[in-house]
Amino acid sequence: MPVFCAACGCNNRRSIQTRSRLRRQWEVALRREDFVATETSKLCSEHFKPEDLDRTGQIVRLRDGAIPSVFSFPSHLQRVGVFLLYITHK
User: Where are the domains of the chain?
Assistant: First the structure.
């Protein structure tokens, strides 16, 4: 059953499809071979940026759409993406 946002004028909703898409993004971010997230899979707050967390209430909550991005991957799982910037002075 979809869950709708209660804010006035907002039509956003959470459904099986949106949860499935987000779950897939989390699986990719984890870089674990053949890993499939389930309803009981959990990640601690250490794997999210501070701006991904809502600390305004008594309970720390994960903001909608937050993707885990803080990891200490072993070298073989590190992404290669080195960019070189060449500056020339005239």
Answer: 3-77
Q: Is 20 a residue whose pLDDT tops 60?
A: yes
- Indicate the pTM of the whole model: 0.64
In contact, 3 and 13? CB cutoff 8 Å: yes
Long-range contacts of 12-15 (CB under 8 A, 24+ apart): 12/64, 14/64
DSSP string, 6-72: -STT---EE-HHHHHHHHHHHHHHHT-TT----TT----GGGS-GGGEE-SSSS-EEPTT-------
Reading the block at residue 54, the tokens are 């809502």
Distance CA 75, CA 9 (A): 47
**pLDDT at site 14:** 74
